[in-house]
Amino acid sequence: MPTSKADKAESLNNMPLIAMIKLIGGKYKPLILWRLMTGTKRYSTLRKEIPCATAKMITQQLRELEADGLIKRTVYPVVPPKVEYTLTPQGESISPVLQTMYEWGQKHLQTNQPIKTKT
Amino acid sequence: MPTSKADKAESLNNMPLIAMIKLIGGKYKPLILWRLMTGTKRYSTLRKEIPCATAKMITQQLRELEADGLIKRTVYPVVPPKVEYTLTPQGESISPVLQTMYEWGQKHLQTNQPIKTKT
DNA sequence: CGGTATCCACCTAGATACTG
DNA sequence: CAGTATCTAGGTGGATACCG
Questions:
Q1: B89 CB within 8 Å of a chain A CB
Q2: Which residue ranges does the record assign to the HTH hxlR-type domain (chains A, B) (predicted)?
Q3: What is the pLDDT of residue A111?
Q4: Nucleotide with the nearest C1' to A43 CA
């Protein structure tokens, strides 16, 4: 059974990483998940905690995370509207990854000068 | 001592994550670093191991990684040309992050159906 | 071998205004 | 409150051709 170039490429153990990147590769996704790790949050709370992202972005990323089964969106039929976001078990299982990223970032920020912003 | 909105936002412990994302947020950067974790690689080798990225992309990402001090580029003045890429200590320090990402991806791919491609 | 240069289709993400 | 709609500048990344 011949191995195609693509197969060979993907069997180089790249797939898990690729899968991961697809899930949390979004610019603000790690941030959102990170914030939700401390518990259920309302939309407006998330916005406040991630002010560098616009409403549109937050919403978009939340929808994608929801579609990927990482978070759950709960709408309370009250007025004024209330929407809460929670990590699903799937989403919670990413904690170690975020934790590791966070710790590395922390160490890096201590020992090095601030990361230069690209652009 | 008053905390500005921006300060408050960034003091929510988002910074380390943001730093991390800036460094390895590039589409192929985790892949490149991951590949280099198994040792020094030539440019052509990297290209073969990450066929989903074009030459332009690989080169670009390599340059950024180099600029960020994560990898070292060594040119051997021979003919035909030979260029090798190696992780710097800084780059190696990211291993745990990639490792964690990889492991999560692996587990996820086992228990779940393939990640659906966005778009 | 290890790139660069150029062109271009798409995508991203911000700003702004509006809604149930 | 929690979005959606629209427009748009700028960035991303693929294809292709060429170079030292």
A1: no
A2: 15-113
A3: 59
A4: D2
Please tell me if residue B104 touches chain A, with a CB cutoff of 8 Å.
yes
Mind listing the pLDDT tens digit for each residue in B45-97? 999 999 989 999 999 999 999 999 999 999 999 999 999 999 999 999 999 99
Whole-prediction pTM value? 0.86
pLDDT tens for A61-94 read 999 999 999 999 999 999 999 999 999 999 999 9
Amino acid A47 reads R
Please answer yes or no on whether A19 and B109 come within 8 Å at the CB atom: yes
CATH of the domain at A99: 1.10.10.10
Report the distance separating Cα B98 and Cα A2, nearest Å: 30
For A32, list phi and psi in degrees, rounded to 5.
-60, -50
Domain count, chain B: 1
Residue B74 domain-assigned? yes
Q: Is A46 left (phi over 0), alpha (psi -120 to 50) or beta?
A: alpha
In a domain, B19, yes or no: no
| Domain coverage including residue A106 | 29-110
Q: Which nucleotide's C1' atom has the smallest distance to the CA of A57?
A: C13
Closest alpha carbon within chain A to B92 = A104
